[in-house]
Design brief:
It is built from 17 helices and 8 strands. Strands 1-2-4-3-5-6-7-8 form an 8-stranded mixed beta sheet. Strand 5, helix 14 and strand 6 form a beta-alpha-beta unit. The protein is globular.
């Protein structure tokens, strides 16, 4: 019996109907494939007509239709492979080896389903993760599309480890699988860890419904992601990425409140817009000081790749707005995700020590992603520039939004200006954004800072040029003369830098005096 015997034509029709927002060519090609699937279901694989033209027609469409095109094309290839047809045409974005692997997986899954062997079906999904690499969500979706709803539910309950953490499965299946995994972990846990896991299994106190975990991995510090709202029907979906010092044990008190409350406030402020929030701790959050983990970008880059894959794995529709809110080290993860090509219409970073890019243009997003930033007074981490230039600096390319809090942990507090601004970002309400205007000292300081950077770059360039020259020559008199010239040049440039620094300090002191005087005259 061929792999195609396990396919359900009704599933493809539902998939096709959901793609009506895409271009007409994809709809027509999917309809043609549907007719051939119906013929196959009625007569068996021997009577299946060639599908090469249909698959090629689908695959001519661009990246915007890649999810649907890849799905339809790979299913067609599986049928052709099962029938011993000619090699399939190439798939955009996939190498020949990738296509061969996916065709083999689809074929194996078809045989497993035809024989009613769920263990063998689960083994197919396990094979996608061979070598420790997470498979592209498109490949997972291509396999899941062959399953009936009953088979999806059975795999989620009987083989949850193959469903709960694998991007590309439908969220409801992952919720069900992760509840099984949490229950297993709770049965093996003791003390405080057991209490926290049992809280995960309790109903959401806000909605009264079971909690929805998109990800659960108790290994190490743990990785976990929870959804508030309905991802399928939401107009806007936002991922909240926390910073250092977070773990499975701190998730409920340290991560959940901000995104959960933002979702509740969205229902109040924008009753006509459905918002789904994701509290996403899908990365190894660095341990706090005195640990040195937070000084490295390794965990941020690993987390950024995972975040990009997690967003892609949801298969959100073209009409759904996707936002990322990253706080502190979570903003570094956010920057890494953008560099990985994560889908994001809006990005907001708060208390950021840098986003692995010196300017918004470095992300290569053009006008496709709106980038916002907040920096509260007294937030020293936001001024550290440890992971790149401060996105709050004038000229960074980020839009600066106002915040009424103070310090590094004040962002998105209930009822705050920063919460209202974040909500406006998530729902694309530009008119409601409260932008932060440049202060007098910032307006003066910005060109001075630029001049200072230019001078520093000039000094570094002189040093590099002289070092290169000295590496090429062995004439002592010339070397001595050059060294003397460089010393003079460095003294001049350093003197200029000190003058500029003194100018900035004088401006800042003057503004402080003016502001102090104003407060004395008008205490309110």
């Amino acid at each position: 019996m061929s792999a195609a015997s396990g396919a359900d034509p009704d599933r493809l029709e539902r998939y096709r109907a959901g793609g009506e927002v895409l271009d007409d060519g994809v709809i027509r090609a999917a309809g043609e494939l549907q007719a051939r699937l119906e013929h196959l279901a009625a007569t068996g694989s021997a009577g299946l007509p060639p599908l090469g033209a249909t698959a090629s027609g689908v695959l001519r469409h661009g990246v915007a239709q890649r999810g649907l095109a890849t799905w339809v094309g790979t299913v067609a290839r599986a049928f052709r492979a099962a029938d011993g047809g000619a090699p399939p045409p190439p798939v955009p974005g996939l190498s020949g080896g990738d296509v061969d692997r996916l065709v083999a997986a689809l074929t194996a899954l078809g045989h497993a389903l035809a024989g009613g062997d769920l263990a063998a079906a689960a083994a197919v999904f396990a094979g996608l993760q061979a070598g420790g690499e997470a498979p592209p969500p498109d490949e997972v979706r291509a396999l899941v599309a062959l399953l009936t709803p009953g088979q999806v539910g059975a795999l989620a309950h009987q083989h949850p480890e193959m469903v709960g953490s694998l991007d590309g499965w439908p969220p409801p299946a992952r919720y069900a699988a992760n509840r099984v995994l949490i229950a297993r972990a709770a049965a093996d846990a003791t003390g405080e860890r057991r209490r926290r896991l049992l809280a995960f299994l309790a109903d959401d106190p806000v909605t009264g419904r079971p909690r929805q975990f998109l990800l659960f991995d108790p290994a190490g510090d743990g990785r976990v992601a929870e959804v508030f709202g309905d991802l399928d029907t939401a107009d806007a979906v936002a991922f909240y990425v926390p910073g250092m010092g977070n773990s499975l044990d701190t998730f409920d008190r340290g991560v959940v409140p901000r995104p959960q409350n933002l979702g509740v406030e969205a229902g109040r402020q924008y009753p006509g817009t459905e918002v789904a929030m994701v509290a996403w701790l899908g990365y190894d959050s660095p341990d706090p000081v005195p640990s040195l983990e937070v000084l490295s970008d390794r965990q941020a880059r690993d987390g950024g790749a995972a975040l990009a894959r997690s967003i892609d794995g949801l298969g959100l529709g073209l009409g759904q707005t996707v936002s990322i809110i990253g706080h502190s080290y979570g903003s570094v993860v956010t920057g890494a995700a953008l560099l990985e090509g994560a889908r994001a219409d809006n990005v907001l970073v708060t208390g950021s020590p840098g986003v692995l890019a010196d300017h918004a243009g470095d992300f290569g997003r053009g006008d496709t992603t709106d980038l916002f930033t907040m920096e509260a007074p007294g937030d020293v981490i936001a001024n550290s520039e440890w992971f790149g230039e401060d996105p709050n600096d004038p000229g960074s390319g980020f839009v600066r939004l106002d915040t009424d809090g103070r310090g590094h942990s004040s962002y998105l507090a209930d009822g705050s200006l920063s919460q209202r601004n974040a909500l406006a970002v998530v729902v694309d309400d530009d008119a409601a954004l409260d932008r932060r205007e440049l202060s007098t000292v910032e307006r003066i300081q910005a060109p001075v800072d630029q001049a200072r950077e230019d001078l520093r770059d000039g000094l570094a360039g002189v040093d590099r040029a002289v070092d290169a020259w000295q590496d090429r020559t062995e004439v002592p008199l010339v070397d001595d003369a050059l060294d003397g010239s460089v010393d003079v040049g460095q003294d001049v440039i350093e003197g200029g830098r000190q003058v500029l620094d003194g100018t900035v300090e004088a401006v800042e002191d003057g503004v402080d005096v003016i502001e102090s005087g104003a407060r004395a005259l008008w205490p309110g």
